[in-house]
Amino acid sequence: MTTGTIKFFIEDKGYGFITEDGTETDYFVHISNVNGDTDLQEGDTVEFELAEGKKGLNAVNVSVYEKEQEAEAESAE
Predict the structure, then answer these.
(1) What is the pLDDT of residues 4-46, one digit of tens each?
(2) What is the pTM of this model?
(3) Structural domain count of the chain
(4) What is the CATH number of the domain that holds 51?
């Protein structure tokens, strides 16, 4: 599994982009490819796989690894 950070996610439209850790490459993600928690927020850390889509590689099998809010709370302690 690859890890990355939600760059942005437009909830109304059901899509956004994930920036891959280490490469800074952005991948398209659609809500239909998100497992479990679908409340994706900018800064959330996610795990994902890549699959060929209509316009290149897409993030699929996406799972939230750590919510941005939780990470901020832990760093404040």
Answers:
(1) 999 999 999 999 999 999 999 999 999 999 998 889 999 999 9
(2) 0.85
(3) 1
(4) 2.40.50.140
